[in-house]
Amino acid sequence: MTEPIFIDALGPNGPYRARNRLGVPDVAGNPLLELSLVPKVYVTRAMAALRKAGTMPQEERLAALRAAGELFATGVVDGMSAADYQYTVSRMSGTPLPIVQRAVRAIARSAAGSYDSAQKARPVGAVNDWRDPKAQEGTAVWIRRGDVFAVHAAGNHPGVHSLWLEAVALGFRVAVRPSRREPLTPYRLISALRASGFGDDQIVMLPTDYAAADEILRQADLSMVYGGQEVIDKYAADTTVLPNGPGRSKILVTADSDWRDHIDMIVDSISHEGGTACVNTTAVFVEGDPAPLAEAIAARLSAIPSLPPEDDKAVLTAYSMPAARKIESYLLAKSAGARAHLGGDGVVDELPDGSAVLRPAVHELDDPFAEQANVELAFPCVWVAPWTRDAGPAVFHDTLVLTAVTKDEKLLDTLLADPTIKNLYIGDHPTYWMTPGVPHDAYLGEFLMRTKAVIRD
Amino acid sequence: MSEHILDLPLDARPDPDEFVRAAMEWHFNPETGSAYWLNRAKTLDFDPREDVKGVEGLSLFPNIINELRDVCVEDLIPRGYGAKADVVGVYESGGTTGAPKRVIILRDWWQRIMAWMNAGMDEAGFPRDVNWLVIMPSGPHMAGKMSEQHAVDRGGIRFTVDMDPRWVKKLVAAGKAEEAEAYAEHLIEQARFVLSTQDVGVIITTPPLLERITRHDDLVDLINEKVKGIVWGGAHMDVDTRHLYRTEVFPGVKLRGTYGSTMILGGSRERLGLADEDACIFDPPAPWITFHVIDPDTGRPVDYGERGQVVMNHVTRNMLLPNNLERDLAIRVEPPAGQVGDSVANVSPVARFDDEAVIEGVY
């Protein structure tokens, strides 16, 4: 491709091409697309337009959502075929093509099922409408906490764009600030939503530089942001912002179970999705000697081939060479004192086009409380640590997904009760397991909605 | 008798090198120079009256701008003005980095720079005899004083608000974003009282405050109803923003930028006659005020059309402030025909999309 693809902002009056554009290269550094960056005053006005717009009737919007999901996954959107889109995303973000294809199907499923999925969060005492007969005796009605929802999206995985579709289903107007790393997925998805019946003032895409980004949140009723620990800290006290932070997902295997029976699940949890998702396993804890497990994981992960991201069999995420080197040197600095089973001398593997994949890294820790167990990097990078009864559940604080392979029900009770462990999978279930209707980090509906008492004649 | 070269109006085009040599004579002659420069000259490794033969020679000077933080302002007045120099005021830099820097403005320069800025307003078709609302830094800041003078010179009544930008910077630096937000909204509220009750024909304010105004539909309506022109300065405005103001937000209102600094005792004018799509170009009144756009690593000029850092020179009877490297980045543009130095476009701070230092985590 020689002509750059223009990714315009999608504003309340249609597409908007800014003079201020950011070149987004492919992983090899070749120009790929030009992203329009809108100024702050554009954001202000777009958000005001969302606020003034009405909400589409439910039946219409659910039909439009379903149609948009199909169009997004299979159709030609803004002149681009589904296959071209998937190829371009993998070249741009480095996400392996098979992962992009899976994510695309998942987004289409989410679009079709988002209302039903969102309804799972509705309290058992609440109904959706004051017209429900229950209101005659008095009931709770489930209502939106606002009208305008904003998302500062991530670019690590196309799948992040399936979640905010629930807000659309619930009747929010939505503003998405795309990631600079991969703005094509939200552009295509929102274009598809518009082509399927949503007005330009219902869902907007506002690419901005850092300075104007906060304006989107400021003008929204509720927001969801993706980021690292600093983002979590920044919005910790703000009840209108839902942060999606580090996953730091983990696996525990206690002495009553043999890790050898679960090695497929463990290895998969580390490398599935290219290791870039928050549900990928960052650390594996084993009651007993971690060395044989670390060795077994290393043996399995070392067999993964280094392939360009657009290859049908690609598993590893590709990065530009400078980005790959940066992550590698961070790993080398952080892994000081750990015993390397794989990747101890470096993980960067150059591809023929000058980009690179990060090959898996497996390090053994000697202390369950070693800080490395929470160092989450966006490639298959795992820390294998010993777990002891003394260390207990404390090492699993602030974990998105914990897979616990154990027969110890008392321990499971404790892990379930810990609110800082967001999801608990018991037995042979990989940390990346997800299905519509089961929450990813609590139901989004818990954040988007509230109940109101209604009684009527 | 022709006027002395240093006393010409700013639309004159004196030979720039002859002009600079005359200024060197004035500032470094023991009879006429300021106490500050006469004393400072002793530590220079060159003799300005001998060695500075023109505009290029100004780069021999060290950047003395930080010395203006503690020098006694009387020492800045050239002795040639005599015992009773006509002082308009003492003005201070914003105070972003530590103690403020001070300059002293004398009547002869003030009148000439204001006359030149005024002529620019006429050329741009800004109305006379209308009232001005000044939402600019007040107190020791030159921007507020100049704006007020503008209003008066052009036959209007000026309305002002109190505005202390240093307090805002302090709040932001301390992470108190909410307090900074509250202060900014307080300024907007003060402006609303004036706009909703008084006749206002021109508003002069900063780009961030103008953006904040556009958050309030009632203020946008009031401006479109009453205001003929908006002058902005003191910060940067990108082309997209300007285009949106012109076409969508304030379609019937003239928009004009200024780019100046207290450290040049004035500013430059937005070039007229450019296409809507073009970036704002600012032309300084050379040779009194000159810009040079350089590569900060080498000190060499960047090519026309390339981005670099702005060096500013102020050379008048009033003061000599040579070779001051500003923090601003700008594109180097050819000056108007026959003018020395550079013009500048797309003045901006460095853009940032994300916090790139952070690499841990998957987002």
Main attributes of the structure:
heterodimer; A: 457 residues; alpha/beta; Aldehyde Dehydrogenase, Chain A, domain 1; Aldehyde Dehydrogenase, Chain A, domain 2; 2 domains; 7-stranded mixed beta sheet; 5-stranded parallel beta sheet; 23 strands; B: 363 residues; 11-stranded mixed beta sheet; two-stranded antiparallel ribbon
Question: How would you describe the overall organization of this protein?
Answer:
By secondary structure, chain A is an alpha/beta fold. Chain A is built from 13 helices and 23 strands. Chain A folds into 2 domains: 5-245, Aldehyde Dehydrogenase, Chain A, domain 1, CATH 3.40.605.10; 249-426, Aldehyde Dehydrogenase, Chain A, domain 2. Chain A starts with a strand and ends with a strand. Helix content of chain B is 30%, strand content 21%. Chain B has an 11-stranded mixed sheet with strand order 4-3-5-6-7-8-9-13-12-11-10, sandwiched between helices. The radius of gyration of chain B is 21 Å and the shape is globular. The model of chain B is unreliable at 354-359 (pLDDT under 50). The chains are: A alpha/beta (457), B alpha/beta (363). The A-B interface holds A 18-20, 22, 37-42, 44-45, 48, 154, 156-157, 180, 209-211, 219, 226-231, 244-247, 276-278, 280, 326-327, 330, 375-378 and B 211, 214-215, 217, 238-241, 243-245, 248-249, 277, 351-355, 358-363.
Strand order within the widest sheet of chain A? Answer: 16-19-20-14-13-21-22
Radius of gyration of chain A: 23 Å
Overall geometric form of chain A: globular
* Fraction of residues in H or I helices of chain B: 25-40%
What summary fits the major beta sheet of chain B?
A: 11 strands, mixed
**Strands of chain B, total number:** 13
InterPro entries (chain B): ANL_N_sf (IPR042099)
Protein name (chain B): AMP-binding protein
Family (chain A): Belongs to the aldehyde dehydrogenase family.
Protein name (chain A): Aldehyde dehydrogenase family protein
